[in-house]
Specification:
Blueprint (H helix, E strand, L loop, with lengths): L1 E2 L8 E4 L2 E11 L7 E8 L5 E7 L3 E5 L1 E12 L2 E6 L5 E4 L15 E7 L4 E6 L3 E9 L12 E6 L4 E5 L7 E5 L4 E6 L2
Antiparallel strand pairs: 1-6, 2-3, 2-6, 3-4, 4-5, 7-8, 7-10, 8-9, 10-11, 12-13, 12-15, 13-14, 15-16
């Protein structure tokens, strides 16, 4: 059991029969009322975000989590298959546990977050940035650079994002997987 004074960003706790990650917290002391800790929590199972205030001195269950490196193998009709590179154990996960399935590429390394006590996988984290090849995009109109115009592009993984007009088929681009956006063109 931990207390409210132990709350920190990134920690995981068991609250209302669900696992929550602390995104933000603030210790509040007021002359008129008792001290409390204001938090913003994100559910590990549903992805929902809530704000909750703990009274100072409240005890809660801290949950130990572990991040492990896995390699994406393939997708089939049952889900997405990953392999641990150290002991070659394989785990099958559903698409709801993976944020950004459209960026998964065979052989890429990801981090899987596990509940340490019962060894259940909770979520998959893709690399923050990836270099991917553009397989289809409309040709850009020469001289149309007065505005920050964007066009759709299909990437080698099947994802579609908006790119600047100068990006062509066959170009390699750096993509931000968190907000699904173009960062820069990569020189080959």
């Amino acid at each position: 059991m931990a207390m409210t004074s132990d709350i920190r960003n990134g920690m995981c706790l068991n609250h209302n029969n669900d696992l929550w990650t602390v995104i933000e917290f603030q210790h509040v002391k007021s002359a008129r009322s008792a001290a409390f800790v204001r938090t913003k929590l994100k559910s590990m199972t549903t992805g929902r975000t809530i704000e909750y205030s703990f009274a100072a001195g409240t005890r809660y269950d801290e949950v130990r989590m572990e991040r492990r490196k896995y390699q994406f193998l393939y997708q089939d009709d049952q889900g997405y298959n990953f392999m641990n590179n150290e002991n070659y154990d394989q785990v099958l996960l559903q698409a709801t546990m993976i944020d950004g399935t459209e960026f998964l590429k065979e052989g890429m390394d990801v981090e899987i977050l596990f509940h340490a006590e019962n060894e259940t996988p909770l979520s998959v984290t893709l690399p923050m940035h990836m270099v991917l090849e553009v397989v289809y995009t409309e040709p850009g109109v020469r001289g149309d650079t007065a505005t920050n115009a964007l066009k759709s592009a299909k990437l080698e993984t099947g994802a579609e994002i908006k790119v600047p007009l100068f990006v062509n088929e066959g170009d390699k681009i750096k993509v931000d997987t968190q907000n699904r956006s173009y960062i820069e063109r990569v020189k080959s």
